[in-house]
Amino acid sequence: MKKNISILSIISIISISLISSDHIDSSFIRGQSSDIADFYAFQGEDTRNLTFIANIQGILSPEDSEAANFDQNVVIQFNIDTNNDNIEDLVIQAVRRGNLMWFFGPEKPTNTGSEIQILQNSEVQDFVRITPYMENQITKNSERGLKYFAGVTDDPFFSDMSTFFAIKDGRKTNFNNPGNDTWSGQNVLSTVVEVPKSLLGDSETINAWVTTHRRQ
Amino acid sequence: MKLLYIFKALFVSCIITSCSLNEDAGLNNNSEETVVGFDGTFIQEDRIGRPLINAIFINGNRKQDFNVAVTATMNENFKGEMEAELRRISPAYNNATDTNILGQNASDLANLLATDVLNISLVEQTSFFDASRDVMFTGRALGEDVMDAELLLIFGGENGMENPSLRSDFVIGNDRDFQSSFPYLPRPW
After folding, report:
1. Domain range holding A13?
2. Which of A104, A194, B71, B165 could form a disulfide with A174 if both were Cys (CB 3.0 to 4.6 A apart)?
3. Same-domain pairing of A4 and A92
4. pLDDT per residue over A16-26, tens digit each?
5. Angle at the Cα of A179 (from B141 to B56), degrees rounded to 5?
6. Does A168 touch chain B (CB under 8 A)?
7. What is the DSSP letter of A142?
8. Could you tell me if A5 and A82 lie in one domain?
9. pLDDT per residue as tens digits for the range B90-139
10. Are A137 and A149 in contact (CB under 8 A)?
């Protein structure tokens, strides 16, 4: 009898846990793990640095945020064109392994365009612990002067996108004043890397964009 | 014997399940596939340079073409349809001589935006569009109202005053304050 109760208890614990686990899995897939929400690039607090931010899997509700995570099969790549031909001369790559976000670069990519490999030079590799949801932000400063962060943050974008699409589709003719921020109270998965400008080539201006790439 | 087998099976299930819950807390054990190393080939699934370009100017099944486009080929592949969409949605380019506040006609603006990159200065202030300081297209900082900047270029006309109910979405800022230090982003909701 005792044994039977133990089995039943274990089975019920497992059932609850599996529901939780499925919730993680479905959220993982539902988030379209390679979907880029936004890209920022700006001078850092230390003006000798440039900060790059890639936000993906937007938008995440607070309910979905605890289970959200970066896809280990998706590389986030910051592409940097230093000679204004719109071809990446340097890249910075980020990909999750376990609870760490690994960073590679900036360095010349193995090949340009849509099909990429991860940089192999171990001298330009580093990692940061991914900040668990709602915990204090974990950052890392590297010996090369780079800074790293990865984790869930507030979605920093603001706009009345819903009304814009209504205008674009001919369902409305104007914005409301005040507008309604479509992204209010929502989160994203953020990858932030700050780089000494001295590692970004000799040009006074660069072009940059973010791509995501899935393992084949 | 059967009971022992069941217990063994349950024990294994427990380990796997508790591990995936650990993943929820950010620990390094989980039941998802284990990915080791950094080898392999990765194919592009999405891209972004300037904010909202795909959302505003690209329609239907061309959206995914835009997402997987190689940057250097974008101008020739997307400029035409972006100019057509700009003319369709905005009355500010109805006449052949119409321009925006930067003096760009519809073709000029589409030509700029079709190559979807952020232009970034390594020596000046970084801003997507700060007309008050005459700084534009030198980066994109957090907190910048890029929606209003693009609406101004799309709907504002030569003096930036045309179509007053379309040249701003009247959302004035983010719902959380940004930090002055790395990583600058606010805590989540």
Report:
1. 1-30
2. B165
3. no
4. 233 222 222 22
5. 60
6. yes
7. -
8. no
9. 999 999 999 999 999 999 999 999 999 999 999 999 999 987 778 899 99
10. yes
